[in-house]
Amino acid sequence: MKVKLEGITLIATEVAVLAAFYRDVIGFEVVVEEDHYAELKNEGVRLAICSRSLMADNTHGHESYGRPISGQAVELNFECDSPEQVYALFEQFVAQGAVAVADPVVKDWGHTTGFFADPEGNIHSLFAVNP
Questions:
Q1: pTM of the complete model
Q2: 36: left (phi over 0), alpha (psi -120 to 50) or beta
C-alpha cells in the first residue's frame, strides 16, 4: 500500500493574518476562509492553515497545542524557474511583508536559495536549480 502527500497544514495563532500573507505575498488563492481554518490553492500540494485551538479540539485536547511554539518544525520550499526569479521574488516578498532571513546566494549543492519568514515566524525557502 502507498500513500500520497496531499496537503500540508500550518498551525497558526492568527489564521487570518497567515492566510492573507500566503494570498497577498506568495500569490495563493484562498478557497476556504473561516475563523479557525483556511485552505489555499496553488500549483502544488494543498496548503491549509489551522488554529491551535481547533487542532486541540480535533486531537481530543492534545497538550502540545497549548504550549508555546519553540523552534522550526516545517519548511516550505518554493521552486522558481531561474536564479534570477529567486532574487526578484525574494525582494518582492520582503517588500510585501515577508521577513528576510537569508538573502539568496548560490549554494554548494547547485541551487540559488534564499530564506524568508512568514508572519508566524515559519522560515521557508525560495530556490532554483542553477543552470
A1: 0.87
A2: alpha
